[in-house]
Each structure stands twice: as structure tokens, then as C-alpha cells.
Amino acid sequence: MALDLAQLPKTEAQDSRHRALIQGSHLTKIYATSTGPLVALDDVSFDIREGEFVSLVGPSGCGKSTLLSLLGGLEERSEGTLTLNGQDLDRPRPDIGFMLQTAVLFPWRSVMENIRLPGAILGLDRKAQAERCQELLELVGLAGFGDRYPNELSGGMRQRVALARLLAHDPDVLLMDEPFGALDEFTRETMNLELLRIWSATGKTVVFVTHNIGEAVFLSDRVFVMTPRPGRLAGVVEIDLPRPRQTEMMREPRYSELVFDIRHMLGVD
Ligand SMILES: Nc1ncnc2c1ncn2[C@@H]1O[C@H](COP(=O)(O)OP(=O)(O)OP(=O)(O)O)[C@@H](O)[C@H]1O
């Protein structure tokens, strides 16, 4: 873990945080189901700035994963516009990476082979990739585990591998669907701190889905609060807690206030 984060490649994001990178306007997603059309997202408009950490929170079924799939170009929208850097976002792109709740690792490939897979698929330079992947292994705290196989790792370690793999081809945008949701509280907190450390060192734009309001407040610059049936954006909450964030911040009145504001928007109180 002796990697110097300052030496990792930085995007221009850290210098241009106020520019809208992703813009969604009147986005609607209607699924055809056996019982008729289902409006999963209804008229959702937003922008996401370059280098920003945005979380999507809301109860089950409010369309968080649907919105993330649209952002990843994995689903076709029914109405509205969605752009990245002004270009229509209607298909998967190498500059957008996706990470899910459970690490989908190939069991017959070693940790290092799993991490190197996206770069190999994209035909990136093998030597540069090998060096980068070694650095990433250290970055996620798995130095020395490159030759292990996924079934030899704990759940937290597998998510670390997935995080390294997500970063391997250096996408500008990280879409994360409850990436640490299946981990125990302690490992989850550690992973959140690691993620913030990596995010602040690399300037990636992160869109993070979670059910956990406290986690969203702790991590984010802004929290998009969504309500279900049909999925709508109830509001956007600016998180004005200072950075870098420390777990002790969760004791502060401002943290609790923000959590309660969001709970209120969701009608939890
Ligand atoms: N492929 C699909 N076909 C039909 N309906 C779908 C499909 N994917 C999602 N839905 C429906 O769209 C709505 C939104 O689902 P989505 O998974 O986006 O919600 P979510 O907020 O991510 O939920 P959760 O927090 O439980 O993961 C739900 O009513 C769901 O049943």
C-alpha cells in the first residue's frame, strides 16, 4: 500500500469541477411488462458535473438502477435526452465504467487476470496495462494477492478486485450500483473511505446508488433523492460538509441535519 496517489494519472476533472459533464433532460423509461407498460422513470432532468460525486438514494423500485443503466448506455430511454460531453449517451462506452453489488469475477482467472481483462478486451498496450494493474492492486490494498483466485478471497476482497478492474482502463465516469451493499458495516466503511481516497486522487466523476442515506451524505457532493411509482427526482441536496471526509463527521450536527432533510424528502419521518 505504499503507492503514491499523487502519481496516479489525473483527469482534467479536478480543475474543471463546475462543468456539466452529463446532462439528462425529461428522461423517461417505460418497460413493457406482462401486465402492461411500467413507468420506471418519469420526466427526470439533472446535470452531473465533471469530477463530482453524486449519489442516488430512494426506496426500492424508485428507478435508481434504471437511471444508472441509462447512464451506462445499457438501456434505451423511452423519452428525453441524455448526453455526455454533449454527445448522445445511447450505448456503452469505454470512458464509462460500471460496478455492481456483487463482484462478477471469472473464477478460473487469477485476481490479476481479472483486473487486466477490460484492458485486454479494449486492446490496450499490454506492458502499460501490466504496470497500471499492479499499481491498482496496491491502491485497493491487495498487493501480493495478484496470483490468488476469487474463491480464495473474502467478499470485501472480491469487491476490491472489482474496484481495481473498474479503474483498470481508466474510465472518466464510474457508475456504482450499491457496490458495497453486500458487505458488513465495518468493511463497507473501510471501502467507502478507500473510494473517497481514490476519487479525490483521480478526479473521476462518480454516480453511486445506495439505499443508505447516511452513506450517501458521507460520500457525496450532491444527493439525488428519488421517489417511486413512477420514479421521479424529488430533489437534489447539496452536501456542504468539508473534505476530506472522516468518519467522525457522522457525529456532527450538520451531518445529522442533512440525513434528516433527505429522510423528510423521502417521507420516512
Ligand atoms: N427489465 C425490466 N423489465 C421490466 N420492469 C423492470 C425492469 N427493470 C426494472 N423494472 C421495474 O422498474 C422499476 C424500477 O426498478 P429499478 O431496479 O430501477 O429500481 P431501484 O430503485 O434500483 O430498486 P432497488 O433499490 O430495489 O434495486 C421497478 O418497478 C422494477 O420492477
UniProtKB/TrEMBL annotation:
Listed InterPro entries: AAA+_ATPase, ABC_transporter-like_ATP-bd, ABC_transporter-like_CS, ABC_transporter_ATP-bind, P-loop_NTPase
Protein family (similarity comment): Belongs to the ABC transporter superfamily.
Domain ABC transporter span(s) in chain numbering: 22-253
A Pfam family assignment: ABC_tran
Upper taxonomic lineage: Bacteria, Pseudomonadati, Pseudomonadota, Alphaproteobacteria, Hyphomicrobiales
Keyword set, alphabetical order: ATP-binding, Nucleotide-binding, Transport
CDD domains with a match to the protein in the record: ABC_NrtD_SsuB_transporters (cd03293)
GO MF annotation: an example: ATP binding
Name of the protein in question: ABC transporter ATP-binding protein
Organism: Flaviflagellibacter deserti
